[in-house]
Amino acid sequence: MSMTANPALTPVKDRAAAARLGRRRKRADALARGLSLAATGIGLVFLASILATLFVKGFGALNLSVFTEVTRPPGSNGGLLNAITGSLLQVALATVIGTPIGMLVGTFLAEYARGSAFGNVVRFVSDILLSAPSILIGLFVYQLLVLPFGGFSGWAGVAALSIIIIPIVVRTTEDMLSLIPNTLREAVIGLGAPKWKMIVLVCWKSAVSGIITGVLLGIARIAGETAPLLFTSLGNNAWSTDLSGPMPSLPITIYSYAGSPFQDWIELAWAGALLITLAVLLLNILARSLLRRGP
Question: What CA–CA distance (Å, rounded) separates 295 from 206?
Answer without folding.
Answer: 5
